[in-house]
Amino acid sequence: MAKAAGPAAVWERVRTFALGLPGAVEEFPWGESVVKVNKKVFVFLGTDDGSYPLGITMKLKDPEAHAHALSSPGAEPAGYGLGKSGWVRVPLEETDAPAADLLCDWTEESYRVIAPKKLIAELDGE
């Protein structure tokens, strides 16, 4: 049986996936990595320097995905009031943390909530 990827590898995979979405750019406000589209954040990646546990925060509007994300070990509504708007923080260093593929799906959902229609159409190959 294949060993699950470590938290740093999962974090890097999600970061690479997010940056591959149309119009996505990485910025470092507050010294943390965020990925934006159209000047709006769609995923908070935090830091990978070991100063904080690795985690990913994304906006999930779909009630099923939102509930699934919140059921992940250690997951919680995002701080600073963002949780009220559907933002969920998922820690990567928990035992049984979500797999990279699922985190990439959630990252794409967050992107679709934030991105302009023109870029979503590009993502969909239209």
Automatic annotation (TrEMBL):
MF terms (GO), sorted A to Z: DNA binding
Q: Which UniProt keywords apply?
A: DNA-binding
Matching InterPro entries: YjbR-like_sf, YjbR/MT2646/Rv2570-like
Q: Which Pfam families match?
A: YjbR (PF04237)
Protein known as: MmcQ/YjbR family DNA-binding protein
